[in-house]
Design brief:
alpha/beta; 8 strands
Amino acid sequence: MTGTGQGYQESTHADLARERAPLGAAALPDALTRGRGVVLVPDKGLDRVMTVAEVLVQEGLDVLAFGFAGSRGTQDSGGAAGGSDLATLISIYSFRATIGCYGVRSVEDARAAVEAGAAFAICSHPDPQALTALATAGLPFLLDALTPDEVAAAWQRGGACGVHVRPAEVFGRRYADALPEIVPQATLVPTVTDNDVAAEWLEQGAAAVSLSTSVLSRVFSSEDFGSLRQRAADASTMLARHRSA
């Protein structure tokens, strides 16, 4: 595949995402449609998160979403970086990566994400005021949903640039075939558990895939950064194949 051909394919993915976006919605970030994947990184303390993020970016996984809960400021297993930590991460990596956040629920969360300079937000059961704040700021956002009805409702809710299908793995690998047929109009970014499942979703038309445990595994407890680097490289290779497919 020549460089020109690959550029054409990347433009096609981005153009399709823009065409699918509901009227008035911000488009899915180009970096996400070009890269075909985002890694969700939970908050485990700024220093530890930076070490992991550095490995991911070095291996070509340069679209990251950090766990975020703005005003709640918790740091549970799901991750919830405060606004100041998010702003710090963005200031460090904005020239090398596209940084978003996930776990946005409240209007305070939304405002903190905007103020930190996030490129996109993934929202989990958000307050209507949170979505209004994101839309007003022009910050692209995705909504968490799982079942076909939930996905359709999230997409039709208005304003969302995509639906974060989470946790897609609970319905098994065949969901990658079924869901795009049921809601063909929606821009889907499903969570995936391994590279083979990610490839299936991308082949069935998902705009991108959401990586977390498949790449991170237990790196925050094991601190096995060599294995993290290998998983990141494998995921990056898989995504590169689908950028030029």
